[in-house]
């Protein structure tokens, strides 16, 4: 019995992703528009922000975010 490891190229997925880029909202940190092809986070108060912006902002705080 031969088991082949399936290495699927994710071309179709990448294409579908590129076609479905949508505006998520405005970043609460840098005020730029966020598209869903970027890493972003949404908060409980319905605001969103770039993940990178949140991370940078978080680093500035003396206390760590307690999840
Ligand atoms: Zn941002």
Describe the structure.
This protein is an alpha+beta fold and 67 residues long. The chain has a domain at 24-60. It has 2 helices and 4 strands; from the N terminus they run αββββα. The chain has helices at residues 11-19, 51-60, and strands at residues 23-26, 33-35, 40-42, 48-50. The strands form 2 sheets. It has a two-stranded antiparallel ribbon. It has a two-stranded antiparallel sheet with strand order 3-4. A hairpin with a 5-residue loop joins β3 and β4. The radius of gyration is 18 Å and the shape is elongated. The structure holds zinc ion. Zinc ion is lined by residues 27, 29-30, 32, 49-50, 53.
List the helices and strands and how they pair.
Layout: H1 11-19, E1 23-26, E2 33-35, E3 40-42, E4 48-50, H2 51-60
Antiparallel strand pairs: 1-2, 3-4
The structure holds zinc ion.
The site of zinc ion has 7 residues, from β4.
Report the sheet-strand fraction. 15-25%
Q: What does the average pLDDT come to?
A: 82
Radius of gyration: 18 Å
Main sheet specs: 2 strands, antiparallel
Unreliable stretches (pLDDT < 50, length at least 5) are: none
Shape: elongated
- Please work out how many helical segments DSSP would assign: 2
- What is the helix fraction of residues, given as a range? 25-40%
- Order of H and E elements: HEEEEH
Euclidean distance between termini CA atoms: 47 Å
State the strand order across the main sheet: 1-2
Q: What oligomeric state do these chains adopt?
A: single chain
SS elements, strand count: 4
Give the distinct bound molecules: zinc ion
Structural class of the secondary structure composition?
alpha+beta
